[in-house]
Every structure is written in structure tokens, then in C-alpha cells.
Amino acid sequence: GAGVSQSPRYKVAKRGQDVALRCDPISGHVSLFWYQQALGQGPEFLTYFQNEAQLDKSGLPSDRFFAERPEGSVSTLKIQRTQQEDSAVYLCATGGPATGNTIYFGEGSWLTVV
Amino acid sequence: EDQVTQSPEALRLQEGESSSLNCSYTVSGLRGLFWYRQDPGKGPEFLFTLYSAGEEKEKERLKATLTKKESFLHITAPKPEDSATYLCAVSIYNQGGKLIFGQGTELSVKP
């Protein structure tokens, strides 16, 4: 498709389990962002890639969170030893030279930790 | 500290009843202000980008305006399909393009 694609759309994890969330960007988009959105709140920044380089990871809440984009395209957000407070929607957004400062979001991955 | 505040948190309108949503911001150096629409269970959908005070942009029943301290999203003669959460976000110079979001305004338009 032409939009940002995220998978899985829904994930239920047992506390302590590791999870991996995938983002397929719009073709040609070099910038990629991960956001976390709690229910009833606006998205909060987690991390930012320019091509394969992770330029900002200041929003990652703990060292259990890790993101990668090894070939500058698909990105994976990994959460180790999940906790209940990790339950949220994880949004991926991408942008490119043609979009200026505007970034476009995927539908999100809904994570519930039980 | 860079901050974005939206008001009201929730707004209920009758179909055809025009109104405005507010986004106030306190940032060190505004690079751009963005409006997104978010439907339940979906990701944010881009609406507008504004760059400088005095700028206005329109799309169907929506018009976004920008001053040095706030932005307004005006909704003229809304329809039930305009019901959604509207998110405001800012991008700041020297912060790599990341967005700082407000908490959103949940709009409900009744027929």
C-alpha cells in the first residue's frame, strides 16, 4: 500500500514477555519516528531515525525499549520484559524530502500487557 | 519547557453549529505547527501545517489559523462525520523534526 504499514495491529503479551513491533515506511521516506500514545492522551515521542541512523532516542522510557532500522527502511521497536505500564498504542510516522516537515502516521500497534 | 495545551478537552456540537478549537503553545523556537485528526482505533491523519503568524489554511469545513502564541481550528457548519479527536503538535528548531503533541480535543457532532 501507499501508507505507513504497522504490524501486528493488536498484541496481547503476558507480563515479562518480549515483543517486537514492525513499521514499513512510505517508499522514499528517510525520516522515521516512533510515538507512544496512552488512552485519551496525545502521542509522545520515543525515538527518531534518519535513514539507518538513530539520531534521537531521548523519549525511550527505559532500557527495556530498543529500536532499530538497519537498512534505512523497515524499523522494529522491541520491548523487553514487558510491564503493564507498557500497555499503549505504538505509532510509527515517516517523512521524506517531498513532505517538508510533515510526517504521516500508520494505524498503530495496540499493545496490551496482562 | 516546551509545552502544547489544547482546549476544550471535549466539545459537543449540533450539526451546523460552528465553533473553534484552541491550541496554545510555549516553545523555544517554532519550526511548524501541525493539526491532525484521529478517529477511534486509527492513527492520526494529517490536516494542516502552519509556519508563521498570520498564516491561514482551509480544507472543506476546516480553517486553521496561527498567531505567535496559539492556533485555532475553526469548524464551520460541522457534520456528524467531523466527529473525531483533533490533535495539535509543534515542531521545534534543532530538535530533528520530532513533534510535541497536545492532549487533543474530542469533538462530537450530533445530527
What's the structural blueprint in terms of helices and strands?
The complex is a heterodimer of chains A (about 110) and B (about 110).
Chain A: E1 5-7, E2 10-13, E3 19-24, E4 31-37, E5 44-50, E6 53-56, E7 65-68, E8 75-79, E9 88-95, E10 104-105, E11 109-113
Chain B: E1 3-7, E2 10-14, E3 19-26, E4 30-38, E5 45-50, E6 56-59, E7 62-66, E8 70-75, E9 84-92, E10 99-101, E11 105-110
Parallel strand pairs in B: 2-11
Antiparallel strand pairs in B: 1-3, 3-8, 4-5, 4-9, 6-7, 7-8, 9-10, 9-11
The number of helical runs of chain B is 0
Task: Give the total of beta strands of chain A.
Answer: 11
Mean pLDDT level of chain B: 95
Query: What's the gyration radius of chain A in Å?
Result: 13 Å
Note the main sheet of chain B: 6 strands, mixed
Q: What structural class do you assign from the helix and strand content of chain B?
A: mainly beta
User: What is the β-strand count of chain B?
Assistant: 11
Chain-averaged pLDDT of chain A? 95
Largest sheet of chain A: 7 strands, mixed
The SSE string of chain A, one letter per element, is EEEEEEEEEEE
Helical segment count of chain A: 0
Q: Uncertain spans of chain A, ≥5 residues at pLDDT below 50?
A: none
In one word, what is the shape of chain B?
globular
Structure description:
The complex is a heterodimer of chains A (about 110) and B (about 110). Chain A is mainly beta. Chain A has no helices and 11 strands. In chain A, the strands form 2 sheets. In chain A, strands 2, 4, 5, 6, 9, 10 and 11 form a 7-stranded mixed sheet that branches. In chain A, strands 1-3-8-7 form a 4-stranded antiparallel sheet, with no helix packed on it. In chain A, strand 7 and strand 8 form a beta hairpin. The model of chain A has no long low-confidence stretch (mean pLDDT about 95). Chain B is mainly beta and about 110 residues long. Chain B is built from no helices and 11 strands. In chain B, the strands form 2 sheets. In chain B, strands 2, 4, 5, 9, 10 and 11 form a 6-stranded mixed sheet that branches. A 5-stranded antiparallel sheet of chain B has the order 1-3-8-7-6, with no helix packed on it. In chain B, a hairpin with a 6-residue loop joins strand 9 and strand 10. Chain B starts with a strand and ends with a strand. The mean pLDDT of chain B is about 95. Classes of the chains: A mainly beta (about 110), B mainly beta (about 110).
